[in-house]
Amino acid sequence: MNKSVLKFIQQNKKKILGNNSYKRKLFINGKGDLDFFDNKRLLRRKFEDLSKKRKFIIIKRFHKTGLRIDIIDNKFTLYSLDFLNGVETNPFLYNLYKGKKHNKVNYIDVKFSLPIFFKILINIFKYLMWRLVTILKQEPLIIEFFGVDGSGKTFLSNRFYSRCKKNFDIKQLHLWNFKTKKNNKKYQLPYVKQKYNIIISYLKEFLIVFRILMLFFKINAINYKRSVYLFERSCWDIYIDPERYRLCHKPKLVYFLLNFYLKKSYKFYVNKKFNVINSRKKEISYEKYLSLKKSFNVFFKNKDNYNYNRIINLNY
Asked: 13 by DSSP, 3-state: which?
């Protein structure tokens, strides 16, 4: 667990709902979540500011009573914090509970009166505004894996997926294709076939651009914005290693498109030595390995390609 997160929890422990010490122990061990009473929405802003300069994954999911923030570290351990707009579980009854605000309140015995009626009307209006804001603010989260063939991208992607699939909606992709049991195609060795000629190469790039556009149009639809998208092989691979896709030119259109859509994504760079890779998959020569390593190093040295705080190096 990150020290800055632990410090945040310690500083704001009075705002935690429920059995404080017990819930904190579970949370630290990655077995529970913490609910914070945050009706003024100051705690969530404070935590978001804290997390901007930290190298762990932050997943934000808006819901009817607040904002849930999931934290995933480089060991793929999941921690969840829920910042609630009120202790009442029914948003129409906010600020009607008069007791101590140490736990969530599922039931309130309300005696009807004109002031309470107006409070409920105000709560309904605030709730509708909150839902509108959440639709506009909710963004899909994209996680990409980078590395030479045989470095373990698929293994780590599957590991990430298996650890997180029970907590939120997560979808695995290979390039622009969603992974399902039905679409598992027969694997083909890369770099076997010759490159296309220049005309077909550009035509293929246009086709790739179209497919990527269709993918991001779907991802940014309202129904899909709460999901997490896990690329076991990033679309950036087309730009970094065009030879793999039989392109004889550097795909600049793909670069500009991905630089627009994927600049804020989280990027895991799996860095492995040739002897380890060669023991797993004997697909590439040592010369090709060095060439790919150089391409990845050039890509990650160019800070225009990504948000620096969202790069996580893995050497498992």
From this structure: helix
